[in-house]
């Protein structure tokens, strides 16, 4: 009896250890992995030994080939590759994947080991379909220096999801695959790939029938894709600001994506299967960008999904591992389904980065963690992942600072993106990139330690936030929250100017010198530190920052305590009628107190100045009272 009890206890303890306290672990698996060894033994054992609970098995890839019986299978594909190259590995894959029972055996073996298998489909990539349906490919908007007309992106894998018959073709593939007892469906590339594509007759004729000004849309797109640097985000700004023609053009493409997800969801629900999707990371924190470039929206599509796996591959996106925390937390805010984080385990990513990604993903507390992909996970990478999963992160979770970076109306996208990247230089900060709809709600400010208002237009930002949003910020700072303003964000909380809502947030006893000539120029400006402060740690005096007509500050007469000048201008810019000499020795960076809260204002841009980003990072920590 004791032996049986001991065995049961040992089994229970091992099960608890395997599951990492119940955290689901997924891995993306290409079909050739079924051929590397006997799937019932070594492959399954590798999955078990690495605590995998879910496998996303590629059943229809970008070539249009399938693992299940169809007009074009992976066996057919690898036979083609063998004939072209005479490489023996392709012939091996052909013989292996020709086995009609291979997939059944793998799924059965996985189920016997309590591993779920999801059928992973590439949606908008299908070379087989494109080759057999001329006109089904996406259409590329060409640089107007060469030609002002769109042209088909021939030879490419991407399908126009609005092409007649493709949705039915795709859904038939889903139904064929589900003859095998899969546990779920995973949709990948459920998006368009770039603003430059989908300029086809199907979409343009739909737009024309709905009264969209196509000349305007084409012109806006040309400027965004091929115009001046200042126009590169024009399409996004027009969409953000509600331009009716731009908005309707994007909605047409979003409707395409939603019809595929909704139709697949109906199939999944009928069969009691989980439905998941792999999403691009930008939509988690920059939904306007994701709508314009991908037509992929977390909020709209999550209603049909059980979970989203975010493909936040830090190495490939040239982001620090702390980026995963930001991506997951922002996705959780914008989604109604569960959120999984994906770990990059392919390409040139080093093992320490695998560990750091894993730890940071866990700190964000996602509903699951997936690895892309099985075939490229070396023993060292698996060990790094395991180490990250077993690391004690309780202290790190408790030490996180959540703050809001305003990314709504009136802001410049590059300013808030670079501000977020500066925030991520600290492993303690999780930035939430939120627009006015969130700041007009007490709920979100109640979760934050700081608010950062970036560059843009002070009056436009005030107008977007409205009296409600501005009042919420005032209450937030009064109750002990931190405020950091850069350029337009430094104009916003000082003495109001002109006849607009900037008067609704006056929490710093400062005003702008010669506000009527605010557009005094841009460039590198020399600054002199006049009061040492934690934000200047490691900064030599004097120093330089990028400047774009930020406020030249001086004391005001508001019924507030005086501010403390931290740095002054040693450079004078006086373009567009501004008086010469007005900038010299005036306040460029200041600290102020408003009731229980701390405020740091930057007239120039530390986040845009290479090598000076840490100044902003330290300011965020300081106003959060973590200096």
Structure write-up:
It contains 24 helices and 21 strands. Among the domains are: 308-382, no CATH class; 400-623, 3-Layer(aba) Sandwich (Rossmann fold). Helix 15 (323-334) runs parallel beside helix 16 (351-363) and helix 16 (351-363) packs parallel to helix 17 (379-390). It has a nine-stranded mixed β-sheet. The protein is of the alpha/beta class and 627 residues long.
- Main sheet specs: 9 strands, mixed
What would you call the structural class? Answer: alpha/beta
**What's the alpha carbon Rg, rounded to whole Å?**
27 Å
The end-to-end span amounts to 59 Å
Task: Assign the CATH class of the domain at 400-623.
Answer: Alpha Beta
Uncertain spans: 3-18
Query: Would you identify the CATH H-level superfamily of the domain at 400-623?
Result: Class I glutamine amidotransferase (GATase) domain
Work out the strand percent: 15-25%
Counting DSSP H or I runs of 4 or more residues, the number of helices is: 24
Tell how many strands the DSSP assignment holds.
21
What name does the CATH topology of the domain at 400-623 carry?
A: Rossmann fold
Helical proportion, percent range = 25-40%
Question: What is the level-2 CATH architecture name of the domain at 400-623?
Answer: 3-Layer(aba) Sandwich
Sequence of strands across the biggest β-sheet: 12-11-13-14-21-20-19-16-17
Mean pLDDT: 94
Which geometry do the CA atoms define? globular
